[in-house]
Amino acid sequence: MGTRARFYLPALALASLLALAGIASSHRGGGVATGPPPISEQVRRAGLHFDPTVAEADRQVVLAAIASARPDARALIDLVDGLVDVHVGPTGDRSVGLTETGGARYSVTLDLGTVSRRYGQRGIERLVLHELGHVVDFALVPESLDRELDAGIPAGLGCDQGVLGGCANRNERFAETFAKWALGDIGVSLNIGYKVPPPRLPLESWGAPLARLATDARAG
């Protein structure tokens, strides 16, 4: 069954700090010992695949968002982007991003128009890095490292609507914190995401295992 991971849009009807998007269940194959399957050299060299309907300007926006990330985060994305099919447009259910997988590839849909109008460039960068963080998580990060990284993220402030803050699932906690680490931005005054608090350690320290993973993966 395919994986679906949503990045939510704060609701406008009540308050900009609240969100009303659903989060579909996520699934990871493989165990702690084996981890995700290896990525072929052909895939590593392939790069993102944009749907033919994606305008050139939108392609450049996505690539610029990736380029804004720290080098270690870009290295991880470079390892998996050959698995990614990028679509641009609404995702429904009040979300602005959606990552799905039904096999070897990942489909990422980005509502760039909505995010650009409401959150500007900073919001676009957060959205793109969050959704690609899901792909890094599913395709590269072993279960044992997932648990280690998640242990460094506080449980959250409350359990809003059963899906946010302390109730955000581990996949969303990883993706949101990956985006914060990648951008060096904990998200102050950026009301987009799952309300996951910053990690206990500085972002650089929290992401150090991911930097090592990037080095090991490139050497493997």
Task: Provide tags for this entry.
11% strand; 5 strands; 8 helices; 220 residues; five-stranded mixed sheet; alpha/beta
Lay out the secondary structure.
Blueprint: E1 3-8, H1 41-46, E2 49-50, H2 56-67, H3 71-80, E3 84-88, E4 95-101, E5 106-110, H4 112-140, H5 143-151, H6 170-183, H7 203-206, H8 208-219
Multimeric state:
single chain
What is the percent of helical residues? Answer: 40-55%
How is the main sheet built?
A: 5 strands, mixed
- Runs in which pLDDT lies below 50 for 5 or more consecutive residues are 11-34
- Mean pLDDT over the residues: 82
Overall shape: globular
Q: Strand tally, please?
A: 5
Word description of this protein:
The protein is of the alpha/beta class and 220 residues long. It is 44% helix and 11% strand. It has 8 helices and 5 strands; from the N terminus they run E-H-E-H-H-E-E-E-H-H-H-H-H. It has helices spanning 41-46, 56-67, 71-80, 112-140, 143-151, 170-183, 203-206, 208-219, and strands at 3-8, 49-50, 84-88, 95-101, 106-110. A 5-stranded mixed beta sheet has the order 1-4-5-3-2, with helices on one face. The longest helix is centred in the middle third of the chain and has 29 residues, at 112-140. The chain is globular and about 40 Å long. The two termini are 29 Å apart. The model is unreliable at 11-34 (pLDDT under 50).
